[in-house]
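Trying the structure run again after the queue cleared.
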Amino acid sequence: MRAVQITQLTGPDDVRVAEVPEPEASHPFTPGSGVLIDVHAAGVAFPEVLQSRGQYQLRPELPFVPGAEVGGVVVSAPPGADVSPGDRVAALTLTGGFAERAVAPAWGVFRVPDAFDHAQAASLVFNYHTAWFALVMRGRLAAGESVLVHGAAGGVGTAALQIARGLGARTIAVVSSDEKERVARDAGADEVVRSDAAWKDEVKQLGGVDVVLDPVGGDRFTDSLRALRRGGRLVVVGFTAGSIPEVKVNRLLLSNLEVVGAGWGAWAWDQPQVSRDIGAALDELIAAGAVAPIVGARFPLERAADALHAIDRRTALGKVVLDVRGA
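Done. Tokens:
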């Protein structure tokens, strides 16, 4: 089968399509049988960029096939799984997703509604489970509160806006361009501010926020604290800006603020029920029309390097997807 391989840790330019053996129906990171899936689309995210440079915590031996999430059709499933052959699914694979066939642990596979295409299915698990975990389980976002989302036009950002809006929260998006503003508003942003302007002052004029979701990090971290209301929570999701910020804890003391880490993968990996619970919560929001993944750039498998560059250069709008079997 065709698959994208990382053969050396020199960055996106050196990923290659190769012929590799089909996987067995057993997930390499989970004992026992897995769900075998014909992959139609694969989601592309920042961890794959880091993996191409050997900078991610998950470091399989070279060469390996990256790809943490897919949309496709079940080929086989173990006894007791919630899915059956022929089901259209979204699945968390962790690795191996950039291929024509992949395997996922049974607890990381979810049926998708007929209204979702395979690209939307490939956009569902990584971003929306991350956003739910960050906003609800770590940020304790409640109806009637307000949330500020950095990187609001990207995959995690658009997921967070949709989930927050679906939960009855007011949403403020931080973006850097007119095009990204359009995407953020399509995802449900009530207000939009520009990252290259005095965004913190604009947010304070809007009354501040109860929760900040930050997948970016870098030099905007301190201003995020200043944008919080008393008792607010800043939820750290990642550092796509490249630098890891530091916090002066006196700022937390003066306004009773919290800085909270949200590492969804590390939390959910050995607690399968967490993924099932988040999946069920998202199903309710999908049924209510609040959640519908926004797919951005789509690339054929042979252009996986271009897909990774779109993430790395922060030009992505919505979710970047590989069309493994054609659009």
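The domain at 2-124+293-323 is CATH 3.90.180.10 (Quinone Oxidoreductase; Chain A, domain 1). Worth checking whether this holds up in the mutant runs.
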